[in-house]
Amino acid sequence: MQSIPNALARTLDRATYEGYRVGFEAAREEAAFLAEHAGQGALAAQLRAMRPLPDREARQ
C-alpha cells in the first residue's frame, strides 16, 4: 500500500507533466498559425511536424 504523501506526489507529478504536454501542443499550434498568417508556410509546416512531448506513462 502506498503512503498518502507518496500517492499525492505521484498524482501531482502526472498532472503537472500532462499540463506541460497540453501547453506545448497548444503553443506549437499557435506558433504555426502565426507563421502561416505571416506568410511563412514552410515554418508553419516545420512547427507542426515537431514531435509531441512523450507520454511518460506509455511503454517505450
Largest sheet: none
Secondary-structure element series:
HH
Computed CA radius of gyration, to the nearest angstrom: 17 Å
Mean pLDDT: 91
> Which blocks of ≥5 consecutive residues have pLDDT under 50?
none
What is the tally of helical segments?
2
Spatial shape: elongated
Structural class: mainly alpha
Helix content: over 70%
Report the β-strand fraction as a percent range.
under 5%
Q: How many individual β-strands?
A: 0
Termini distance? 26 Å
Structural write-up:
The chain is an all-alpha fold and 60 residues long. Helix content is 72%, strand content 0%. It contains 2 helices and no strands. The protein has helices at residues 4-37, 41-49. Helix 1 (4-37) runs antiparallel to helix 2. The longest helix has 34 residues, at 4-37.
Q: What is shown here, in short?
A:
With 60 residues, this protein is an all-alpha fold. 72% of the residues lie in helices and 0% in strands.
What is the element layout, followed by pairings?
Blueprint: H1 4-37, H2 41-49
Helix pairs in contact: 1-2
Features:
60 residues; mainly alpha; 2 helices
